[in-house]
Input
Amino acid sequence: MLVVLSDTHGDDGTRLSGRTREAVEAASRIVHAGDFATADVLDAFESRGRLEGVYGNTDAPAVRERLPAERVLEWEGLRIALVHGHEHTATARSLFARQSNADLVVSGHSHAPTFRPGVVPALDPGSHADPRRNRPAHAELEWDDAAGVARGRLCEPSGTVFERFSVEPRV
Output
């Protein structure tokens, strides 16, 4: 399972609870779209396993020194373009995804969990720890070998699944 998080905004830990903590512990890979806030929070996530992250606008210099602003990663059959989003409009994110030949673009910053279908679908996992008038959330993706797609869901830390989606490789 791939778990997607963003906008932790912590001082010294992951701020994980409930289903979000369980999903991170079960994940084969963790993707974080930035705003860890401190190097201690980044360290806490890195200690949990295979982390792929980018820095966000509130990240300390010690985090920015260790992470890129943009990243492209491969997971199962998908190519994923990852940015925080504070320097990207929806159009810029779409262009970055297309230039990266991505199947999915992931960004954070808004704290609003959403999935938008499109030529390159867009996923914002929201914030599991600092939702700011939005529901707290993270995203989980599992690869469906039989169908050749990733099956995804947006979940609250309580375990409530409030949106399901799928992402197909474009090639």
Notes: Residues 2-167 form a domain with the Purple Acid Phosphatase; chain A, domain 2 fold (CATH 3.60.21.10).
